């Protein structure tokens, strides 16, 4: 157990950056690979025309809703995985993974049924354009089967990252992207003896790559004797006390992701009813946004693991010091990435076949996001840090309050009352970030976000709380 003297020691930045790099770089590479695969998808589909690109982009919005519904369990799972990892509690890791993956796969099954059985109903939520809907139905009816494999892969990756096995998901992503790119080329355009299938081919390629991703994770885990994915009997050793603790910690995250997903659904409906050029620009922008988020997610994962592990082990003072520094480190890093993006965004947009009005909109989207995402990613890092340390409520409450009292009202007023231009509507999506950042910083320095779930962590918290109370006097 640490003492308060840790706070006064010189911080070892070299060791800290190395620890971040060990986790962040493989995760960032994995996400960048996945995003690159998405970009290749976009470029291949864009060659079919902007209408096809817009249709697939709208299908991606339904995937985003799926993400919002299951991500609460990923966030809650990471909280338990990382803290039990710090406490070296193998059974705790296994049963928390069992609950997490069971809940995630149940949600994936619901979305698969909706996409496969009711594709037109799903797409009618996002657009009234019948031609776009017809194309989208062909795509989502097939790609819906990929949801099961994508969600399973996400759950396994969360466990592997939280237990500091970050290379296995990276290998799986490499195999998945190669598979997706190859089968896109074969099936979209009709090579190697296959008929050209257009968007249907892209959907089939996505399903195949999802299967490959899962298989590679299991094969690599077995080859490296990583046991936590194979402790199947321990996955379901739940009791009332554990389930109560699990859902108590997960409920705020679930509510956050669900309500935030509904808010984004409303926003996407509004954005989906813009002119066709704007819809195409949004589809391309989401790919570029995914690159930024994919790179940044490595640092968010590092924050969750490095802080959650220390909290679970009872090293509370060390967790506090790490958390504060990792937020600023991540923001500086993401700012450098944004500068690079802004220097090369125009040729990048042109490479994805945006021209004329769609290119104008695409440039505007990237410029607005480039400014906003530095603060946005700071909020994300802090929220992930709080969650891994056991506080799943504070960031959740702020995000939902501002979504429904500031962001959504602003967008609705601009659209229905003031008939504001498309780019103004998009800018309204980020108007709450700076206010939330200030409030999140105050909470960060208070240390009240440290809420362990392990006995070792609870013991370490006592001295930390005592120190903070004396400091406040």
If you had to describe this structure to a student in words, what would you say it looks like?
The protein has 17 helices and no strands. It is mainly alpha-helical and 473 residues long. It is globular, with a radius of gyration of 22 Å. The two termini are 24 Å apart. The model has no long low-confidence stretch (mean pLDDT 87).
What's a concise summary of this model?
This protein is mostly helical and 473 residues long. The chain contains 17 helices and no strands.
Which terms would index this structure?
mainly alpha
* Arithmetic mean pLDDT: 87
Overall outline: globular
Quaternary structure type:
single chain
Give the CA-CA distance, first to last residue. Answer: 24 Å
User: How much helicity do the residues have?
Assistant: over 70%
- Quote the beta fraction: under 5%
User: H/E element string?
Assistant: HHHHHHHHHHHHHHHHH
Q: Helical segment tally?
A: 17
How is the secondary structure organized here?
Elements: H1 13-46, H2 50-87, H3 90-117, H4 119-124, H5 130-143, H6 146-162, H7 167-189, H8 199-223, H9 232-235, H10 240-272, H11 276-313, H12 316-351, H13 356-388, H14 394-417, H15 422-427, H16 433-446, H17 455-472
């Amino acid at each position: 157990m640490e003492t308060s003297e840790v706070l006064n020691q010189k911080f070892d930045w070299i060791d800290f950056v190395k620890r971040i790099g060990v986790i962040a770089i493989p995760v960032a590479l994995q996400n960048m690979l996945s995003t690159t695969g998405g970009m290749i998808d976009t470029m291949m589909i864009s060659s079919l025309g902007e209408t096809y690109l817009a249709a697939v982009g709208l299908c991606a919005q339904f995937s985003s809703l799926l993400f919002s519904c299951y991500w609460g369990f990923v966030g809650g799972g990471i909280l338990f995985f990382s803290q039990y990892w710090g406490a070296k509690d193998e059974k705790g890791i296994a049963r928390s993974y069992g609950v997490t993956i069971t809940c995630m796969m149940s949600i994936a099954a619901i979305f698969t049924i909706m996409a496969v059985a009711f594709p037109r109903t799903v797409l009618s939520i996002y657009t009234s354009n019948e031609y776009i809907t017809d194309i989208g139905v062909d795509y989502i009816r097939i790609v819906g089967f990929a949801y099961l494999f994508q969600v399973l892969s996400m759950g396994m990756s969360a466990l592997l990252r939280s237990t500091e096995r970050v290379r296995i998901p990276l290998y799986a992503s490499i195999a998945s992207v190669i598979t997706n790119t190859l089968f896109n080329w074969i099936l979209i355009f009709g090579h190697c003896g296959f008929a050209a299938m257009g968007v249907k081919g892209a959907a089939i390629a996505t399903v195949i790559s999802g299967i490959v991703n899962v298989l590679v994770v299991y094969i690599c885990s077995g080859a490296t004797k990583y046991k936590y994915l194979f402790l199947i009997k321990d996955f379901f050793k739940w009791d009332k006390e554990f389930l109560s603790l699990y859902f108590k910690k997960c409920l705020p995250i679930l509510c956050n992701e669900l309500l935030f997903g509904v808010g984004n659904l409303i926003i996407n409906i509004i954005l989906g009813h813009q002119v066709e050029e704007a819809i195409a620009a949004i589809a391309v922008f989401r790919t570029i946004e995914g690159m930024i988020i994919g790179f940044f997610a490595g640092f968010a994962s590092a924050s969750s693991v490095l802080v959650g592990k220390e909290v679970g082990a009872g090293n509370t003072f060390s967790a506090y010091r790490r958390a504060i520094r990792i937020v600023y480190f991540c923001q500086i890093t993401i700012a450098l990435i944004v500068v690079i993006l802004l220097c090369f965004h125009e040729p990048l947009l042109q490479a994805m076949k945006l021209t004329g009005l769609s290119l104008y909109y695409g440039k505007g989207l990237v410029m607005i996001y480039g400014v906003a995402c530095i603060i946005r990613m700071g909020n994300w890092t802090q929220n992930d840090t709080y969650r891994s340390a056991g506080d799943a409520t504070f960031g959740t409450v702020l995000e939902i309050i501002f979504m429904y009292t500031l962001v959504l009202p602003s967008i609705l007023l601009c659209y229905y009352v003031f008939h504001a231009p498309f780019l103004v509507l998009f800018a309204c999506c980020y108007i709450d970030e700076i206010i939330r950042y200030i409030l999140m910083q105050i909470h960060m320095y208070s240390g009240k976000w440290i809420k362990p779930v392990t006995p070792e962590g609870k013991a370490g918290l006592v001295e930390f709380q005592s120190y903070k109370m004396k400091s406040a006097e």
